[in-house]
Amino acid sequence: PRAAGVVMADPRADGDQRWELTIPWSLGGGARFDLDRYGLAVEYAFTGAPSGLPPVVDGAASPLWGDPQSSHRVGVGLEYRAPVDRAEVPLRLGYRLDTPDVGGDSASVYGGRALTTHTLSCGAGYRGRDFEFHGAGFARFGSGEFEANPAAGCVFCSAPGSMAETSFGILVDASYRFEL
Fold first, then answer.
1. End-to-end CA distance of the chain
2. Three-state secondary structure along the chain?
3. pTM for this entry
4. Taking the mean position of all CA atoms in its chain, how far away is CA 112?
């Protein structure tokens, strides 16, 4: 996908600057295998980095963009479907690895490599004849060391040090099958 003639204002420049910007894109796929009451799911996705980022102004890169990086995502999930009366209770565990496709000291807006993150999830559900309900919780975490951002004069960029990401969430869905 392309957006030609995107207009962005840089506070260090006189007036607006124009450039063509290609937004990030993703391509991925997965497969699920079932055997009796057990299931295994795997996925892989590649996300391409944006291109055509804003030009350098007064010898310094724009502080809001950093160095774009592609990334890889690999995931695996396990499921057991426990029988309960005339229904099933799916019990699930999952793991996902998100890793930037960088080498050496490629810089991000944080001044170092983008973080590799790990996500653990667990969930359960109820699958009846006409009604389904599913819920899951996840924890995502990652950490790393980084150096000062190489963009000279970047007031928004970080200083050297450690960076950590931790996030938690809950996902819930429900559905009902109507007979017509």
1. 40
2. CEEEEEEEECCCCCCEEEEEEECCEEEEEEEEEEECCEEEEEEEEEEECCECCCCCECCECCCCCCCCCCEEEEEEEEEEEEEECCEEEEEEEEEEEEEECCCCCCCCCCCCCCCCEEEEEEEEEEECCCEEEEEEEEEEEEEEEECCCCCCCCCCCCCCEEEEEEEEEEEEEEEECCCC
3. 0.69
4. 18
Identity of residue 16: D
Who's near 51: CB < 8 A, 6+ residues apart? 21, 22, 68
pLDDT tens-digit map of 89-146: 999 999 999 887 654 334 444 444 567 889 999 999 999 989 999 999 999 998 776 6
In the structure encoding, which two tokens stand for residue 175, read together? 């559905």
CB-based contacts of 24: which residues, under 8 Å, 6+ apart? 47, 48, 49, 50, 68
CA distance 125 to 137: 12
By mean pLDDT, which of 36-40, 80-84, 107-111, 129-133 is the weakest? 107-111
Residue appearing with tokens 């050496």? 104
Buried b (16+ CB within 10 A) or exposed e, 101-116: ebeeeebbbbbbbbbe
Neighbours of 90 (CB within 10 A): 17
Taking Cα atoms as reference points, which of 168, 167, 77 lies closest to residue 125? 77
